[in-house]
Write a structure and sequence with these properties.
Layout lengths: L1 H21 L4 H21 L2 H5 L2 E8 L5 E3 L1 H12 L7 E14 L2 E11 L8 E13 L2 E11 L6
Parallel strand pairs: 1-6
Antiparallel strand pairs: 1-2, 3-4, 4-5, 5-6
Amino acid sequence: MKSIRYFISLLLVFSYSMSAAAQQIDTLKENGAIRQLIKRYEEAWNRHDPIGLAANYSSDATWVNWFGAYYKGRQDIEDHYRTTHNTYFKPSHYFTRAIEDIQYLTPDIAVAHVRTGLTDDARYPGETFEFRRMIVLLKKGGLWLIQAGQNAKLEKGIK
């Protein structure tokens, strides 16, 4: 009887450790894939490519811009980018200053904070804006996509 309990205990410990091992995240690989998504976004912005920008979002993504406007779904997000990149963002240049952190909630869900900048917004000639983006990423079919996010404009002096 004692040996059966011992065996069951070992089996449970082994099962738990196997489950935990299966949940391990290859952060080097996944961080690289998320960095690529952030780079693709930047490149699509600077091409003023609304389809390329929207391709970084899941089909049911949500986004809140720096003015607080809310967009729901990839098509809504694409339509917004099409409108803005044909008007005041047409001359703009977007750049990533730093990926401040990437935190994994599960192997397929991550949250990242990204420092960015923007120049040449036609509404604000000569100004450079600094932002902090918070993005929730979801890995679908092996590809990381933006599921939700928000862009906050940083006031002067905010680090």
